[in-house]
């Protein structure tokens, strides 16, 4: 049996299932997953096989069962559980970290239970996994629980096949397990948590050691507290995530759709972006300034559960870092880096082996849509619609970097890592590749990478190639579309619409508003947004007003924003016209920037994608009307959609004093219409009826909803993202899928 | 990335073509100059070609650039420059007055640097080629001190100094192309550096390596040294001297000033204990009044250059391949 079958209560489950069918034999773990040998009546064996899938434990994922006949012994010796074998033959899957299960929660709050109030309670159905595993096979000595010898009662549970804690590697109790600590305070867990709650109520900032790293916590209703946190973290505007005790508290702050509820309460417990109630009620303005949404999450460790009970209010729980740095996870490092931010440290002595950030999700059309796939999801394998001939590493992109390991038809996507330009992040990336390769037993032979020569991921791939690995370059937007194909289990071909910030094109220019005809082998650029100069390169990303200037230069228009930059506007306009330090780009993200600036959303951003996010939230969905842009065709050459037409319409409406919220809506409609028109053009020549929508721009659910509606009305089947992020976090799995498919093709040819 | 961005995979043209064909022990280090002995004398020998556009810019022109460039390549080996050659490749129709201006400027620069132009050559090519005028200079200098200044002498614990504010030449030339029509008081920093180098070598004996921060700027040359010495260099962002106009223009153009060329600034790697003495020596020279200690050499991670940012973050400063294109998706 292959899949997630280790450390999830699988062997005890098989044990009791075999017993119930009166079968004898053995179950054990090996490096492929788990194996079982059965002896008994034919009916019983068949019944066992059926129930195996139907009744599997909640965290188990059975990918594949391979069965063969062996000679019966004729002895009815009963059923037993074998210990782990240390053979390293192929793939095992380490489970993702999992929120505290209902059984453990009951024990946690039962005064008669021996683990009452113990902040590290867990069982085979829940608790830490990926974050504590040092090596495989998954056994206690190869986790960060190795330093906690089990006490007698814990050992008995661990050894009892009938117990919920049978072979639960992190099993522990107050007598033998990790201990909670509050800096400068002595006391048991109950007193510590009461004290922390008191500090929080006083508006203090507390660093809290969680599953995959440190958080910074502050009372979400305290404006002064959240403002202080922003100052100390050097995080000016990006919203903070908020932990709420339960769904009821979540509902008091935001509108929770059924799909959001499912996401919030799922074992992965991601941060879920939900529309906040107006007025926002309790939550301080500085938590999510200017946002119509809140990022909410429910407690996912026993420590969080206890803390939230005691604090009894919404709590900002944001990553423990300064500005651009990755989240701190090592105790010494956290003390050093967060010492100037936190007033107190709530920590414990169970080491974190792997840094894993919180995941972020939102719902779209009643389905989850992951924006950051990390804690609770990674490293669960994703099935590829192809079978790799040789093991593949996808090196990902640069900013929202992940990497991906693929073997056979199974792909493991790393947790979110972040901006590789940051040295700490880069080290996590390079070390993470080695670590995860060992955990999943995949030694890559082929290394897929982006075409951008200066991505550190590209350079890392080249570095790996020096030790004999084979390089496979994959164009950025092709990888986006491939990631969407993988997410939908389709090999293509499709019409791929990849809208994002920027990515390196096959012609060496910056793409980002692309219509591709693509499958998992190749992509043809069938159309794109007409290119505009990006004056000042990367500084145009930080300063959307420059994109406004670039578009306005094409239209010979001087908008109101020009007066806000009396000296620079002229210079940037000239820069746009000079072709010097102004690389042309067909980016959809930059078109959003230009419009956001023109309607007065903002001229400069403090984090990636901010202007576009705010433009989406500004849009008045009740507004009437839409804009239109011309599509210019060039025979065999890709068609071009004139984004400048949309900008011209924005300028005309501004002249007429149309409210910004209406303009924002009309712009979204106009772009969605262009997407549908472009796809229709491609259908006429290619006959393709399926469209895949990918790239960071499609995290904008307003645009996504409008585009999907248009396309479906015109008879297209539309593939969108669910489990794999549409942004650059999905690039690595797209690269891996393409490289694997190409490699399988050339293996066939050989 | 342990051995630096791109590593051997991105073998340069130099490695793949020229070194392959010409391989010899003097060429092998691929420094900006060769150092060898003839009789009792230790000599440095260097050549460089100049294809700057525009030919004339505030603070200089292709002529003094060609003299100072080769003088500086010799100076970086600690040599006293003596003799230069000059080769001219002229486009048919290149105005005589422009040529006269370039040559006069070369003569002035040579005088100022105390070198003589002792041999030369002229070729004229068809219209439309050579952008008016290309120059080549080669130079010979004599080394009169006992130090071997090489990249692999750099060790953890060394201090990294810069002789003055960065990026002025690079920004000046970009603005001089006229497309941007930006007024600025900036001038090229082009200057001969052998004098300030001689003072430095007299003042302290712990100088390990010198490098002028020309093409690719401070970021690129320091990466080369980090790789050659198998050490890491950590810059302190706040310590890097830069004129406000350079910062402003770089911001406008979206170019990281660390990658901007200088033609009269050099980076010195000096034994840590002598950093202050070295700084004092640099600042005592008219070309070094803006000198600063900008970083230090550490053992890990070998081959990488890091920048400690204002907020305490650590950014990788790598070698850029081609024109910088945004990496943000
Ligand atoms: Fe992208
Ligand atoms: Mg040179
Ligand atoms: Zn549990
Ligand atoms: Zn115990």
Automatic annotation (TrEMBL), chain A:
It catalyses: C-terminal L-cysteinyl-[HypE protein] + carbamoyl phosphate + ATP + H2O = C-terminal S-carboxamide-L-cysteinyl-[HypE protein] + AMP + phosphate + diphosphate + H(+); an acyl phosphate + H2O = a carboxylate + phosphate + H(+). The keyword Zinc-finger applies. The active site is at 11, 29. One of its GO terms (biological process) is protein maturation. GO terms for molecular function: acylphosphatase activity; carboxyl- or carbamoyltransferase activity; double-stranded RNA binding; ligase activity; zinc ion binding. It is an enzyme of class 6 (ligase). Its EC number is 6.2.-.-. The keyword Disulfide bond does not apply. Keywords: Hydrolase, Ligase, Metal-binding, Zinc, Zinc-finger. Gene3D superfamilies: 3.30.110.120, 3.30.420.360, 3.30.420.40, 3.90.870.50. InterPro entries: Acylphosphatase-like_dom, Acylphosphatase-like_dom_sf, ATPase_NBD, Carbamoyltrans_HypF-like, Carbamoyltransferase_HypF, DHBP_synth_RibB-like_a/b_dom, HypF_C, HypF_C_2. Residues 190-376 form the YrdC-like domain. Residues 1-83 form the Acylphosphatase-like domain. Pathway: Protein modification; [NiFe] hydrogenase maturation. It comes from the Bacteria. NCBIfam families: hypF (TIGR00143). Belongs to the carbamoyltransferase HypF family. This is Carbamoyltransferase. It comes from Rhizocola hellebori.
């Amino acid at each position: 049996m292959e899949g997630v079958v280790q450390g999830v209560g699988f062997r005890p489950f098989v044990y009791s299932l075999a017993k119930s069918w009166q079968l004898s034999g053995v179950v054990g773990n090996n490096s492929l997953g788990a194996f079982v040998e059965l002896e008994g009546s034919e009916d019983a064996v068949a019944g066992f096989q059926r129930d195996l899938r139907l009744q599997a434990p909640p965290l188990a994922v059975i990918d594949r069962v391979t069965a063969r006949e062996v000679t019966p012994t004729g002895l009815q010796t009963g059923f037993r559980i074998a210990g782990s074998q240390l053979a390293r033959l192929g793939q095992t899957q380490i489970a993702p970290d999992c929120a505290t299960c209902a059984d453990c929660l009951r024990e946690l709050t039962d005064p008669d239970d021996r683990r009452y109030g113990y902040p590290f309670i867990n069982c085979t159905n829940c608790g830490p996994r990926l974050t504590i595993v040092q090596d495989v096979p998954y056994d206690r000595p190869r986790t960060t629980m190795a330093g906690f010898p089990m006490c007698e009662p814990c050992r008995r549970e661990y050894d009892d096949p009938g117990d919920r804690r049978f072979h639960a590697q992190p099993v522990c109790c107050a007598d033998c397990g990790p201990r909670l600590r509050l800096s400068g305070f002595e006391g048991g867990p109950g007193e510590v948590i009461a004290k922390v709650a008191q500090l929080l109520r006083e508006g203090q900032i507390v660093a809290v050691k969680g599953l995959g790293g440190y958080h910074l916590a502050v009372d979400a209703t305290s404006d002064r507290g959240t403002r202080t946190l922003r100052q100390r973290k050097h995080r000016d505007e990006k919203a903070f995530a908020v932990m709420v005790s339960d769904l009821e508290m979540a509902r008091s702050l935001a509108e929770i759709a059924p799909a959001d509820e499912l996401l919030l309460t799922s074992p992965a417990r991601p941060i879920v972006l939900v529309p906040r109630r107006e007025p926002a009620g309790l939550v301080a303005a500085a938590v999510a300034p200017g946002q119509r949404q809140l990022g909410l999450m429910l407690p996912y460790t026993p420590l969080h559960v206890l803390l939230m009970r005691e604090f009894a209010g919404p709590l900002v729980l944001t990553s423990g870092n300064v500005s651009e740095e990755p989240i701190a996870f090592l105790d010494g490092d956290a003390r050093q880096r967060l010492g100037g931010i936190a007033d107190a440290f709530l920590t414990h002595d169970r080491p974190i082996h792997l840094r894993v950030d919180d995941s972020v999700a939102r719902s779209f059309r009643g389905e989850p849509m992951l924006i950051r796939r990390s804690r609770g999801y990674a490293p669960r394998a994703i099935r590829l619609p192809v079978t790799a001939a040789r093991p593949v590493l996808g090196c990902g992109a640069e900013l929202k970097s992940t990497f991906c390991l693929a073997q056979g038809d199974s792909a493991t996507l790393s947790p979110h890592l972040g901006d590789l330009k940051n040295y700490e992040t880069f080290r996590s990336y390079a070390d993470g590749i080695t670590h995860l390769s060992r955990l999943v037993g995949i030694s890559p032979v082929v290394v897929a990478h982006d075409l951008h020569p200066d991505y550190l991921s590209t350079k890392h791939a080249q570095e790996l190639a020096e030790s004999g690995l084979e390089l496979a370059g994959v164009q950025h937007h092709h990888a986006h579309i491939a990631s969407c194909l993988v997410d939908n289990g389709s090999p293509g071909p499709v019409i791929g619409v990849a809208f994002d910030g920027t990515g390196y094109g096959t012609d060496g220019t910056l793409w980002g508003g692309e219509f591709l005809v693509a499958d998992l082998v190749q992509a043809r650029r069938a159309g794109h947004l007409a290119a505009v100069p990006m004056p000042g390169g990367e500084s145009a990303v930080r300063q959307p007003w420059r994109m406004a200037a670039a578009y306005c230069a094409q239209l010979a228009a001087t908008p109101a924003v020009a007066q806000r930059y009396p000296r620079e506007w002229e210079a940037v306009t000239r820069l746009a016209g000079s072709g010097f330090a102004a690389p042309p780009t067909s980016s959809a993200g930059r078109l959003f920037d230009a419009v956001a600036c023109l309607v007065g959303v903002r001229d400069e951003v403090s984090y990636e994608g901010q202007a576009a996010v705010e433009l989406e939230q500004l849009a008045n969905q009740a507004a009437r009307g839409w804009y239109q842009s011309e599509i210019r065709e060039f025979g065999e050459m890709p068609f071009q959609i004139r984004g400048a037409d949309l900008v011209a319409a924005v300028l005309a409406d501004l002249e007429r004093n149309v409210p910004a919220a209406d303009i924002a809506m009309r712009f979204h409609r106009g772009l969605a219409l262009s997407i549908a028109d472009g796809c229709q053009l491609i259908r006429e020549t290619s006959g393709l009826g399926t469209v895949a929508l990918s790239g960071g721009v499609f995290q904008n659910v307003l645009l996504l909803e409008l585009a999907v509606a248009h396309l479906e009305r015109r008879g297209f089947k539309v593939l969108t993202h669910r489990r794999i992020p549409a942004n650059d976090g999905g690039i690595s799995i797209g690269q891996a899928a393409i490289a694997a498919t190409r490699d399988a093709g050339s293996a066939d040819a050989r | 990335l342990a051995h630096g961005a791109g590593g051997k995979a991105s073998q340069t043209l130099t490695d793949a073509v020229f070194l392959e064909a010409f391989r010899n022990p003097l060429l092998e280090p691929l420094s900006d100059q060769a150092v060898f002995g003839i009789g009792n004398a230790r000599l440095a020998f260097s050549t460089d070609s100049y294809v700057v556009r525009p030919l004339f810019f505030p603070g200089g022109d292709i002529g003094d650039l060609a003299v100072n460039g080769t003088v500086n390549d010799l100076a970086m080996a600690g040599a006293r420059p003596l003799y230069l050659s000059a080769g001219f490749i002229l486009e048919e129709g290149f105005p005589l007055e422009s040529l006269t201006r370039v040559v006069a400027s070369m003569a002035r620069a040579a005088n100022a640097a105390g070198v003589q132009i002792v041999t030369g050559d002229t070729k004229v090519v068809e219209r439309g080629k050579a952008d008016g005028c290309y120059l080549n200079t080669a130079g010979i200098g004599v080394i009169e001190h006992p130090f071997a200044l090489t990249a692999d002498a750099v060790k953890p614990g060394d201090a990294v100094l810069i002789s003055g504010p960065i990026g002025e030449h690079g920004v000046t030339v970009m603005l001089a192309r006229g497309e941007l029509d930006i007024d600025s008081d900036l001038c090229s920093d082009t200057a001969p550096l052998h004098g300030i180098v001689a003072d430095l070598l007299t003042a302290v004996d712990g100088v390990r390596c010198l490098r002028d921060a020309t093409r690719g700027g401070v970021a690129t040359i320091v990466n080369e040294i980090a790789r050659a010495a198998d050490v890491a260099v950590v810059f302190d962002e706040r310590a890097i001297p830069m004129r406000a106009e350079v910062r402003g223009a770089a911001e406008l153009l979206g170019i990281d000033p660390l990658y901007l060329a200088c033609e009269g600034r050099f980076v010195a790697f000096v034994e840590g204990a002598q950093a202050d003495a070295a700084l004092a020596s640099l600042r005592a020279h008219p070309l070094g009044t803006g000198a600063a200690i900008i970083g230090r050499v550490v053992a890990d991670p070998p081959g990488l250059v890091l920048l400690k940012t204002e907020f305490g973050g650590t950014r990788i400063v790598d070698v850029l391949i081609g024109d910088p294109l945004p990496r943000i998706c």
